[in-house]
Structures are given as C-alpha cells and as structure tokens.
Amino acid sequence: xxxxxxxxxxxxxxxxxxxxxxxxxxxxxxxxxxxxxxxxxxxxxxxxxxxxxxxxxxxxxxxxxxxxxxxxxxxxxxxxxxxxxxxxxxxxxxxxxxxxxxxxxxxxxxxxxxxxxxxxxxxxxxxx
Length: 128
Hints:
By secondary structure, the chain is an all-beta fold. Helix content is 0%, strand content 44%.
C-alpha cells in the first residue's frame, strides 16, 4: 500500500492505494486477461487541509514548515490568536497547508506578503 494526498474541490484527502502486480492487466498467451487475486482496497481519510501543527516550544515565532508560496494571510497585526489557530495558508506541492499559531497571544508582526515564496524555517510571523 502506498499513501498519497489529493485535493478534491478544495478539500485535502489522504488515500492508500494498493499497487497491482505488473501482469494483472496484460493479456496472457491464452488471450484472456489475467485478474488480480484480490481487488485493490481504497481507504480515504478526510481532512480539511494537511495538518502541519507542531508542539509549541514557547517561542512566538511562526516558521514555515516547508518551502512554498504564501496563499493567504488570515490574521492581521494586532489580532488575538489561540495556539493551533490558522494564521496563514502555505501552498506547497499544489496543496494548501495551515500554518498555525504556536501559542496564545497577539500577532506582533507579519513578515510575508501573499504570493511570496518562502523556504522551510523562514519566520513568517511573530506572536507576542
């Protein structure tokens, strides 16, 4: 089984897909199509977006978990946030990823703009 993540109508899903053996869809010498011994199973786990939440280390820095492009900034400077609340969306590998507040506080500074490219570890915002 292989695990993949797909986005359908803006919703992100994790799916497990079983790879069928190489000869499963090829005609044998008899002219009949070989059938796999068992049908592949598809398990879907729903989630709104990929969960990039991390445990708070006490720091108010909100860092990019991976390289990507800032898709949307959902909170403004001076706004109160709670730990785990989404601050902005990071588009990476054609998926929208929530970037969340590591602790309760107030947004002190937003260091990025929508459409800006960022690298893993870049400080995107600061919480006071």
